[in-house]
Amino acid sequence: MAKSLLEEGHRPEVFDRQPDLGGVWLLRSESKQAGAYKKVRFQTSKYTSVFSDFSGPSGGGHFYGVSDMHRYLSAYAEHFNLSPHIRYRTEVTKIVACADRWKVTVARDGEIRTDIYDGVALCQGLFWKPWQPDFAGLSSFQGQVMHSGSYFDEECLRGKRVLVVGNGISGMDIAEDATKSASKVYWAMRRPKLIMPRMAGFVPNDFQSPASLLADGDPAQMLERIRHSMPDYYRQYRKSGLLPNLDEFREQPVVQINDGIVQMVANGQVEAIIDEIDEFQPQGCRFKHSQRNLDVDIVIFCTGYANGEYLDSLPGVSMQDDFAMGIFHRDNPSLVSTSCPLGIAYSGTFFFPEMVARWYARVMSGSYRLQDNELNYHLDRRHGAVMGPIASLVFGLKLGLLPDPKREFKAFWQLLNLPSFPQIYRLRGEHSDPDAANRLEELRKLSLTNGKQTAALEVVKHRILAGFDDVVLRDLLRRGEIEERDYQGAGRYATRAIVFDWQSQYIMRGDAAARSETTPAYGAPHNHVDDEDYYRKLLGQLKTGELDNQGLLKALAI
Q1: What is the pTM of this model?
Q2: Torsion of CA 404, 350, 505, 1, to 10 degrees
């Protein structure tokens, strides 16, 4: 955010209650309640999980760990001289409207300070308030109870019988980590999810283009592709008992990333229990369906984080109701939130806040004026998740960072068929980077992109063209931007056109799911990336055809 504001000539002042850069990626072992644990690595590669204007130090593996991310952020701050603008160990305690500006109160070392600012950007992130289910009998359990937010490394588990609850990212990581020191590791989940390693053959699993995400997919084909392309992994997966069947995968079309847990379950190092916890007892717990009693010494809840509707520092302002698109304050857009309130699927988790920052900086400069349809767009229970690569496209088109497909369709289509490399969004437009094209070509070679167009991709192409009126199509044809078969193909998909409006980036729930109010068991609460509840709601849409982008089911990462 600070860098984007500086680009537009503003004078940002950053307040951070922590002692150093990093946010949740600032590793610490003392008094830890949230944030990264020692083992954490990105689920997406460093090629898609960086800022668009800085690739970072060379070397290292494909996927950043905690120290890698801290090194990257420090290098970024140094490269763009951001440190003089950051006030560490300073907590924002109150933000209130003051005419069309904002009165901000901060505290540092017992001193209170209040100033007036033209704008306020909320960049605190989402993963700070651990959420833990309240099971019957939990207070009677005589062992240790902790949340993954408090977990640092396996030393606290040495010699103990450990129960890890939840099969999101942290659940898989900690169950795997626990085998290094625990006497026994149990891993409880309500139902299996599809688990894939970080590498798909010779390339990272997030090297998937937005165009391929938009293609219609069949979950059965995806499972068959895994069986044929990764036979050793598939055999281990079958042996583990964790491989979801087709119906289970259709019910939960989500893919989790982990390199070792499947093999550890297959080899007996981790015992997976696919069941629901019924209640806790003094020595352990009992499971609902099997009625199995399990004695353990420590329970680790890997159940996500709660995202409240209100911030303590922002009284009377609803993060749910008062922010258009979940981003800009509806009445005064000089207040912005960079934290996407929904889970971000595929790549884009790191890149999303940068696109919001670039947008906000232009709004504050007056070079972008928010329209009524943008300020009136409201996120509600129908919005399930954000497809990161599609969101980036929507941002890029909105801010003029991509070729206009109605004028330069060839260039637009070429970029749409590359993985979601952030450098794409520095090729043109304001604050473009002259080195972006060279860096992008290096990444294209690394991705092994061959440029071949499958039948499924041709359908995507024609569905995009179907969203243009005939005058635009004829002009594209006349100038050689499309071929005659593309013009004819667009006509066949008039009722299934792909239009990159604001809603196109969302995985939408059906009306029934939007109306339902369910209580999470041991998954994350609503509006969190580890939340399982809304994935189950997609089943009805998959059956009725209400889900716009069924290419979701083809992904190998989330």
Answers
A1: 0.85
A2: -70
